Each structure stands twice: as structure tokens, then as C-alpha cells.
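The following block was generated as part of the benchmark described in Methods. Ligand: FE2/S2 (inorganic) cluster.
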Amino acid sequence: MDDLYRELILDHYQHPHNHGEIPSADISYEDSNPLCGDKIRIDIKLRDNVVEDVKFNGKGCAISQASASMLTDELIGKSLDAIKKMDKQFILDLLGIPLGPTRIKCALLPLKVIKAGAYGINNWGDEDDE
Ligand code: FES
């Protein structure tokens, strides 16, 4: 079963989904994996606080890039509140293979980026409401 997931990860790495940039994005956020310095940037276009389009960019290992590709596939149509509720297990289930502590940091980098982006824009929204 692991082999199937490994193939899927490799396929996302070699042919990433949602790769690129959104010039007029509502959320653009970038962060790096402190262990290796690899970076992921994610651009999100919103409509009524729901993800209408998403693209990612950056460099990193197969796990971080596949994780970004798979995660961005899941984001279209999701609200910012739903993004804030996504947890580590959600990503580990998407990848589907056991990962050691170093690889987990790679896998979670894209989630860290979109959550920081989602919280950022919501905080600005709260300030506007007051
Ligand atoms: Fe850098 Fe995986 S080794 S993100």
C-alpha cells in the first residue's frame, strides 16, 4: 500500500498541481523549513472568504512539494475557517506514508504557510469590522 502512496507523491512532485503565482492574490504568504531553508509561497484568491483559486511556488524536497500540490488541490471551495481547522493529521492522511520527524517538517510546511495566511487575513478583517 505504501508503494501506491510513494508513487502518488512522486507524481505530484514531478507534475505539481496548482503551481505558479496569482498576481492579484488576496493572500500571499511564504515561509521556510528551518531545517533545510527550503521555501514555499502560496497565493490565494478569495471570493466571499472562500478559496476561488490557489497557486504555490518554491523549492524543496519531494515531500514538501507533493504536500503543497495535494494540499492546494483540497483548498478550492474551502472557507478560511475550514482552513484554520486543518491539522497535521489532515496532511499526513493525504500523503499516506509514515514519516520521521525531519520529513514531517517538510510535509507540514505548506500547511504552516496557508494557516499563517488565513489567520493574517482574518485578523485584518476583524480590525475592519470594529
Ligand atoms: Fe527541505 Fe524537505 S528537505 S523541505
